[in-house]
From TrEMBL:
Annotated protein name in UniProt: YfcC family protein
Transmembrane regions listed in the UniProt entry: 25-48, 128-152, 173-193, 199-223, 235-251, 257-277, 318-339, 345-362, 374-395, 415-438, 445-467, 473-494, 506-528
Region annotation Disordered: where it falls in the sequence: 1-20
Major site of localization recorded for this protein: membrane
Domain of life: Bacteria
Record has Chaperone as a keyword: no
Annotated compartments: Cell membrane
Length: 529
């Protein structure tokens, strides 16, 4: 029998399926977001009707009040209380003559529609440049801060001090976060500690990393804590005081209610931050910004491995004392000496020179050339942050040039006119929430909106201080996330995505609006006149 051979038939095998790479959505950077917002603002000037209120401003040279009509006609009026009363501006004349009010105040009942004033897309670059020029004082302050950080960092003082601090806080890490948060809440409610708070990130980011926390905790303990304090301002001159003055009341009215709101808001926020920090400490993957953790740590983590870093010499201790003192002096200057950004920047430059001398000279000094280079490198590292602040102001420039800010204000006042007390304050809270995007400046919105909305409080029988509280709660709930506010500069500094920050902050934004609405509704009934 013939032997047969069977050839092996190849069994077809399935080709491995190629996994399609899913394109992951990447949230735009701070620059892109602001550019998009600027374009939207320009488009709004094409469709929203133009209009303005007459504006009132005190001219210190002539000692007169200057009134500018919507059509641009300027007239001078006697700077007397009688003049203000006749115009329906319920503000003490001393607020103008003393210099407390430096921005133009809207005159109630003077809104006029104007011919369309659309802003061209070609004007976008100009508005961005204008915003940078307008914010030059803040930008110089930030660059000088960067220079100070640079010269301190090159001495190795940060690494040595951080090494010593982490040993002492072992097991009690959140106490430092808690202390920073309470300080920022206090600074916010007392003096509106906002742009100045940018100075604290380079100090605290490396410390919080060493303690096992993430970028969200850094921003939460500084920006968000300060914002909570400012939201529930008690005596902050840039919101509570100036808004009360512009509303024709005194800031002490309603201060007990605002203080109560501050305590409640602070407790809720600190519990929320503690919950989040505890979760991140236990499991770093819980972090909302975990995907950027390595990049963040590489940017801010300090090298503690070398012997030089471990050696906490007297020279380094003196440098760190000067660095910490810079911020104490800054706060004292703002609160008691009337300092503003030029004075704060000058202080940072002065202390930078002192650190250069201490850290650059002597046997173990790093040398004059290295110190000067460190100042320049530190300043250049914060250029993107400084530019973000300027670009955000460019958005406001577009709305002003298009003459639509006052149109929105007039439409909002017409919307709430004649409502009952509780409904009135809740709607007003939401209106200020929206206006916070359009006018992110607390003092700017106060002098624009208070003279318009405060008289409406009289028509519904509620005290004017409730309007002030509604303005604070509403505007700052928006400023937790508004690209036109400070948050963009903060996120740019820490290279954090807006989506990560929004995931953390939205519960506090909702809390502020809901708690504010309930509290103001109760006040409108209890304190009805």
């Amino acid at each position: 029998m013939a032997e047969t051979t069977m050839e092996a038939v190849p069994i077809p095998t399935e080709e491995p399926k190629r996994e399609k790479k899913k394109r992951k959505f990447s949230f735009p950077s701070a620059f892109t977001i602001l550019f998009i917002v600027t374009i939207i603002a320009v488009i709004c000037t094409w469709f929203v009707p133009a209009g303005q209120y007459s504006k009132l401003l005190y001219d210190s040279e002539s000692g007169k009040l200057e009134m500018t009509t919507p059509t641009g006609e300027v007239s001078q009026l006697d700077a007397t209380q009688q003049t203000l009363d006749e115009l329906g501006v319920k503000i003490d004349i001393d607020q103008f003559t003393s210099g407390a009010i430096t921005k133009a105040v809207s005159i109630p009942g003077t809104y006029e529609g104007l011919d369309p004033h659309p802003v061209s897309l070609a004007d976008i670059p100009y508005s961005m440049v204008w915003g940078v020029i307008d914010g030059i004082d803040v930008m110089v302050f930030i660059l000088c801060l960067g220079g100070l950080i640079g010269v301190v960092k090159v001495t190795g003082a940060f690494e040595s001090g951080l090494s010593a601090l982490t040993k002492k806080t072992k097991g009690r890490e959140f106490l430092l976060v808690f202390g920073v948060s309470v300080f920022m809440i206090f600074g916010g409610t007392m003096c509106g500690l906002e742009e100045e708070a940018v100075a604290f990130y380079p100090i605290l980011a490396p410390i919080f990393i060493a303690l096992g926390y993430d970028s969200i905790v850094v921003v939460g303990a500084i920006f968000m804590a300060g914002s909570i304090g400012t939201t529930f301002s008690t005596v902050n001159p840039f919101s509570a005081v100036i808004a009360s003055n512009a509303a024709g009341t005194v800031f002490t009215e309603g201060i007990a209610v605002r203080a109560f709101a501050l305590v409640v808001g602070a407790i809720v926020f600190l519990l929320y931050l503690h919950w989040y920090a505890k979760k991140v400490k236990a499991d770093p993957k819980f972090s909302y910004s975990y995907e950027d953790r390595e990049k963040f740590n590489a940017q801010w983590e300090l090298d503690e491995s070398g012997a030089a870093a471990r050696e906490f010499s007297l020279r380094k201790k003196i440098v760190l004392v000067i660095f910490v003192a810079a911020f104490i002096i800054m706060i004292v200057g703002v609160m008691n000496l009337g300092w503003w950004f030029p004075q704060m920047a000058a202080e940072f430059v002065t202390l930078s020179i002192l650190v250069m001398f201490i850290g650059g000279t002597g046997k173990d000094g790093v040398g004059e050339a290295k110190m000067v280079d460190a100042f320049g490198a530190g300043a250049s590292s914060l250029v993107p942050v400084a530019l973000i602040i300027g670009l955000a102001r460019g958005v406001n420039h577009v709305l002003t040039e298009g003459m639509i800010s006052d149109t929105m204000l007039n439409a909002a006042s017409n919307l709430v006119a004649g409502m009952s007390g509780p409904l009135f304050v809740v709607c007003l809270l939401l209106i200020f929430f929206v206006l916070g995007f359009v006018v992110p400046s607390s003092s700017g919105l106060a002098v624009l909106a208070m003279p318009i909305f405060a008289p409406l409080a009289d028509t519904v029988g509620i005290p004017r201080w409730i309007i002030v509280a509604a303005y604070q709660f509403g505007q700052y709930a928006m400023l937790y996330i508004a690209p036109t506010g400070l948050v963009m500069a903060t996120l740019q500094m820490l290279d954090m995505k807006m989506s990560h920050w929004f995931r953390f902050v939205w519960p506090m934004m909702v809390f502020t609006l809901v708690f504010g609405a309930i509290l103001l509704s109760i006040c409108s009934v209890v304190f009805a006149v």
